[in-house]
Amino acid sequence: MTTLGASIFSTDISTAFHPEMTSLFWNQRRNPILKRLAVSTEQLASTATTVTSKTTPKRNFVEKESSEAAAFSTATAVKSKTTSTGTTYLSEESEGNRKSLKDYFDEAKDMIKADGAPPRWFSPLECGSHSPDSPLLLFLPGIDGVGVGLTRQHQRLGKIFDVWSLHIPVKDRTSFTGLVQLIERTIRSEHNHSPNKPIYLVGESLGACFALAVAARNPHIDLVLVLSNPATSFSMSVPQSTISLLEFIPGQMTLTLCHILSSMTGDPLKMAIDNVVKGISVPPTIQDLSTYLSVLADILPNETLLWKLELLKSASAYANARLHSVKAQTLILYSGKDQMMPSEEEGQRLSRELPNCQTRRFDDNGHFLLLEEGVDLVTIIKGAGYYRRGKCINYVSDFIPLTTTEFNKFCEEIRLRSDLTSPVMLSTLEDGKIVADLSGIPSEGPVLYVGYHNLLGLEAFPMVQQFMIQRNVLVRCVAHPMFFESKDGGLPDFEGNDTLRIVGGVPASAVNLYKLLSSKSHVMLHPGGMREALHRKGEEYKLFWPESSEFVRMSSTFGAKIIPFGAVGEDDIAQIVLDYNDQMRIPFLKSQIEEMNKRVVKLRTDITGEVANQPVHLPLPIPKIPGRFYYYFGKPIETKGEITELP
């Protein structure tokens, strides 16, 4: 970890002050959240006439404290569970320790006490369990400026990111340009130190405008933007209309704070239902809300709120004027029930304006999305395929094992399919005996499961589910690259794509298969690919495999076991009424299919035959009476010898 580029004192001076100031800092601050700090040079310049020699060493020590405090944090933090990349188990998580909105206000109250220092970075101690190769994540706060808006996310984010948060003190009046420059110096310094790592900017509301501004000014730096309800729509927002009222009617302040508080506490009905379902106590009491309002009044007194609203106005205008310069990978999270800003319309607008952008919609959430129950930022980033430690995503080394919550959500998503089909797993033991479970499946990898696709490939997820339940083994699905691409070259974003990425789906390529087998993974491969999944009428259970077994030689290289498998039942519960040939006779559908296939990534362009005929389209089936899925896994085939083809 390099120290921040925003340091305002030279190294020789800071070394002299370090010994005397250690105990003084911790005795004066006593804030368990802080471990890394940097200041705005604009703020220093603006207050140079008031800074005394007594305060100078303290500021310098705050800068120098970073490495020592970071080491303390890492030593005392709870380490995350490390798992094998072969047999991958569910990762540990402590759902009972997830923080609440009350923790946000408690931490915010501590952060703003007697704080006359300039803006600076800090890192939560609970985020100290990440690995040395974890990318840097900078959190840019919203209108509150405190920097603890990720408090409910810290536990999980801290395992895969080096998290820094920006703290803007209540009485600070650093301009928008000054804050942008502070963020800019930090990312440039960190980029110079680790040029091959991405830097994540998570911006909430106002912070999203900072992130867009910095990305526009630094297109050469590998940035990943995660923007929650961006305030680029400030000109059409509720806060915009209150500026004049606050200037002339000070009593309007209480109403404004109440509106902000209601946006933070979320939908009362939704909270009540969630609490009943989860067996949690009742929502915040009147006394709690009164306490929250008091803390909010301390965070945003009248003068500060007016200043922040003017800052929002400047930030929004600046970011909107430079959207054309933003080339960074961007993920926009917008809420369907944002009462402060028209975030839904703004999210859709930004997705059209930004070239490398995906969006995720949260129907029942409000403006302060990252503080609400059930919103897990790590799962969102994983689902979008945005987590990487290098310049490009590595689908093996960058994969993060599922948590129990993620696996339960996955099971809930395919519950209807599982209930209707009641999948039966049959496997073969070493002695050739067939058993009605998965006990014939090896525990250790590498293992390659080779089978054929049923209609639409819907047999894959129940198989992944049963392997996790029965064997605690995660099978990595090799799928068409279009499920992993965004916009041009891929499918439109939908929940199924996120689920595939979360459970370990990998784009089909020789390089990815090599990485999976070399890491002793369990891999599911369908040589017939999309041609089988999107088959025509009368082609149920028909194989469309290449003439040569592309995967056998690679399996032999790593001594992987090959297990042939088949699934029946899926093509018996649906009947295709409109296949590819039918659709190509309808002009409207034909033009849509042709346009889609111009954008989608093509596979197997170097071979001929029916297996290479993989036009993307969606067959129209009608359901029959639900039946049952049966999966049969054959006896494992050893490849340690001189095997070149399957028997």
Determine Rg (CA atoms, Å). Answer: 28 Å
Basic shape = elongated
Number of helices: 23
Class from secondary-structure proportions: alpha/beta
The mean pLDDT is: 78
Distance between the termini: 54 Å
Give the strand tally: 17
Largest beta-sheet characterization: 8 strands, mixed
Which bin fits the share of residues in helices?
25-40%
Q: What are the segments in which pLDDT stays under 50 over at least 5 consecutive residues?
A: 1-88, 275-282
Beta-strand percent range? 5-15%
Major beta sheet, strand line-up: 9-8-17-14-10-13-11-12
Organism: Citrus sinensis
Protein name: AB hydrolase-1 domain-containing protein
Keywords: Hydrolase
Describe the structure.
This is AB hydrolase-1 domain-containing protein. This protein is an alpha/beta fold and 647 residues long. It contains 23 helices and 17 strands. The strands form three sheets. Strands 9-8-17-14-10-13-11-12 form an eight-stranded mixed β-sheet, sandwiched between helices. A seven-stranded mixed β-sheet has the order 1-3-2-4-5-6-7, sandwiched between helices. A two-stranded antiparallel ribbon has the order 15-16. Helix 5 links the parallel strand 2 and strand 3. Helix 4 packs parallel to helix 11.
Quick synopsis:
By secondary structure, this protein is of the alpha/beta class. The chain is built from 23 helices and 17 strands.
Question: Strands, helices and their partners?
Answer:
Blueprint: H1 11-29, H2 41-46, H3 55-76, H4 101-111, E1 120-122, E2 136-140, H5 154-160, E3 162-167, H6 176-193, E4 199-204, H7 206-217, E5 223-228, H8 238-248, H9 252-265, H10 268-278, H11 286-299, H12 302-321, E6 329-335, H13 343-353, E7 357-362, H14 377-384, H15 404-413, H16 415-421, E8 424-428, E9 434-435, E10 447-450, H17 460-471, E11 475-479, H18 495-502, E12 506-507, H19 510-518, E13 522-525, H20 529-533, H21 552-557, E14 561-568, E15 574-578, H22 580-583, H23 587-599, E16 620-623, E17 630-633
Parallel strand pairs: 2-3, 2-4, 4-5, 5-6, 6-7, 8-17, 10-13, 10-14, 11-12, 11-13
Antiparallel strand pairs: 1-3, 8-9, 14-17, 15-16
Helix pairs in contact: 1-3, 4-11, 6-7, 7-12, 8-12, 9-11, 14-18
